[in-house]
Amino acid sequence: MDADIYLHVDELVKLIAHEVDVIGAPVRLKGFNKFDNSPVFNTGKLIEDKGKGLVVMDRIGTAVFMLSRKAVDVLVEHAKENGDIYGGNPHTRGDADIEISQYDIFKTGVFDGEYLSEDYYVCRVLRELGFDTNVDMTCKTKHNGMFSF
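Above: the chain sequence. Below: its structure as tokens.
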């Protein structure tokens, strides 16, 4: 969860209760639709409506985003298979003797002519690996900035 997001604990419990491997909540972006001043959310295209506010979308921003241990393990294995592993950096970690494998899971890239940020990129990979990108559209969030969205 991003630091500038407010999510009531009841909403968090609701997300966990879905018992799915990948789930997020819609978050208003800090801005408005330039054509009609409507809110803009960090969600993608609707794929399936599971009912009671739970939908599958092609992507969800990671402002409020949860992955199961299973999803994380599959992402790590995918990174290993693709050579997306790197070691510690003494300039950022401070100790050149510590060797910890790190996995480049939240990458960015251009796919089908569209730039995907790290959150949309990981959703694309998760979907390729067989996971649904679930979104609970009933979750209420606040995105804090100059004022709360």
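The longest strand covers residues 46-51.
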